[in-house]
Amino acid sequence: MSGSGGWAVAAVAAVTGGYALVSRCAAASFVSAPMAFTAAGVLIGPAGLGLLDLEHDAGPVLALAEAALALVLFTDAATVRSEEFRNGWFLPVRLLVVGLPLTIVGGGLLAWVLLPGLTGWEPALVGVILAPTDASVSKAAVFAPRIPAVVRHGLNAECGLNECLVLPVFAVLLAALPGTSAAHQGVSGILRHVLLLSPLLGLVTGGLGGVLLSRSRAAGRVTHDWRSILPLAVAAGAGALAAATGGSAFVAAWVAGFAFAAALGAGPPPGPAPDAEDGTLEKDDTLEAVEHLAALLASLSFLVFGAVLLGPALTHLDRHVLAYAVLSLTVVRALPTALALAGSGLRPATVAYTAWFGSRGLPSLVLGLVVVAEEVPGARSSGTVVAVTVGLGVLLHGLSSVPLAGRYGRWYESAVARRPSLRESVAGGLPGERLLPEWRRR
């Protein structure tokens, strides 16, 4: 390891360890983990100490970010619980079916109007990259106990599902840009690999892993430690197979998460813990290890985002990019959300709350890094727009999460006391509330 590389690793370790020591205090404050790690990244990147930059560290940076997103997609899919949608299904369905396409179109049109430096399919690519949401950026608002369950479930499900729904569109647009690594496959080749081969590999890998683990656990052949490691192998295997065959590791990991959870849940019940004298069953914490690793990699991805994308982008900031970022976080999100929820019976306060906390985060920054790493004309301009928008969103959503959650929670408690049949209370009191992994809620 070179001297500069050693200093970079030391700085990353110091930031990670420092935040871990004050994580409980930070969780109760206005400083979210994405805010802290992004700011630290700007400090150690080219705009600060110069310990980490994309020109010299592109390979490790991109590998880290892609691994983080793949694991997040796997855990999001594996932890979705269908029973939590029985009453409040209308909110995520409306946001995904109506709101997501309108957000992509709106973001692309705005980029075409405001950013003349982007040509061809680049404005549409920016719109796609900035369409998915990330609950971890504004988790204090999304997972606040005072927030009605239907809103928590809706924002949760939107974040857990829209990440992967945009990937086929992203892959097609990337293949349409001359000079990219995906261009040689062509649009038809990308569609075959992303929409057919990658889901198939994810389905087989995840399903097989779930079935084998279920049977081994029921027979008492797997230890507690290794049981929680197997999902890591399943997620990594599905993504690696898809990447090796020219497909999407993200799509494969996402489908593998669904298949793994379905196969594991459909199998025989687990046997007694090997070391339990009273014959009690083992605690079902199979996904614990992959959740913890996903949490670490996601935080580190925000750090490298601040270093290699946001820091350099701030040195090229202009009024057009800043205007796009502000409008993307407000109008481009708010109008599609309002249209999607029209006629739903939700009060204006709920619609506004849902619209504001459609936070951009890990999916957008990873896809932005993928585009910048292609080193084609327009890639840097697209990366600058994505970086400024995500960075501004991390700041504003992080700062506003606690106060707006408190204000909206007080409004809801008052409103439901006056009108118990309020539409927002339709999904209240659902048991086993766990759409996304625990680390994305605390």
What does this structure look like?
The chain has 442 residues and is mainly α. The protein has one domain (3-440): Na+/H+ antiporter like fold (Up-down Bundle), CATH 1.20.1530.20. 69% of the residues lie in helices and 0% in strands. α5 runs antiparallel to α15 (331-340) and α14 packs parallel to α15.
Topology:
Elements: H1 3-21, H2 23-27, H3 33-44, H4 54-78, H5 90-114, H6 122-129, H7 139-142, H8 149-165, H9 167-176, H10 186-218, H11 224-244, H12 249-266, H13 288-314, H14 319-329, H15 331-340, H16 348-356, H17 362-373, H18 379-418
Helix pairs in contact: 1-3, 3-13, 4-11, 4-12, 4-13, 4-17, 5-6, 5-8, 5-14, 5-15, 6-9, 6-18, 9-10, 10-11, 10-12, 11-12, 13-17, 13-18, 14-15, 14-18, 15-16, 16-18, 17-18
Transmembrane segments: 6-22, 29-52, 58-79, 91-112, 190-213, 234-264, 293-314, 321-341, 385-405
Organism: Streptomyces roseoverticillatus
InterPro entries: Cation/H_exchanger_TM
List its traits.
single chain; 442 residues; mainly alpha; 18 helices; globular; membrane; transmembrane helix; Cation:proton antiporter; transmembrane
